[in-house]
Amino acid sequence: MKDIVEIRWHGRGGQGAKTASLLLADAAFNTGKFVQGFPEYGPERMGAPITAYNRISSERSSVHSNIYYPDYVVVVDETLLSAVDVTAGLKAEGAIVINSAKTPAELRPLLRGYAGKVCTIDAGKISQETLGKNFPNTPMLAAIVKVSGVVAVEEFIKDMDASFHHKFATKPQVIGGNMEALKRSMEEVTVG
Amino acid sequence: MSNLKAKDINETITWKEITLGCSVFEGGSAELVNTGDWRTIKPVIDMEKCKQCMLCVPVCPDMSIPVEEDGRRGEFNLFFCKGCGICAKVCPFDAITMIKDEK
Amino acid sequence: MGIRERLSGNEAIAVAMKQINPDVMGAFPITPSTEIPQYFSSYVDNGEVDTEFIAVESEHSAMSTCIGAQAAGCRAISATSSCGLSYMHEMLYVAASDRLPITLAVSCRALSGPININNDHSDAMSVRDAGWLMLFAETNQEAYDNYLQAMRIAEAVNLPIMICQDGFITSHAIENITLVEDDKVKDFVGEYKPEYSLLKGSMAVGPYATPAFYIEAKRQQAQAMIDAKDVIRSVSADFEKMTGRKYDLIEEYEMKDAERAIIIIGSSAGTAKEAIRGLRATGEKVGLIKIRSFRPFPAEEIARALKNVKVFAVMDKADSFNSHCGPIFAEVSAAMCVANINNPKGINIIYGLGGRDVRVESIERVFAQLDEIVKTGDVGESYRYLDVRE
Question: Which residue of chain A is at minimal alpha-carbon distance from C177?
Answer without folding.
Answer: A34
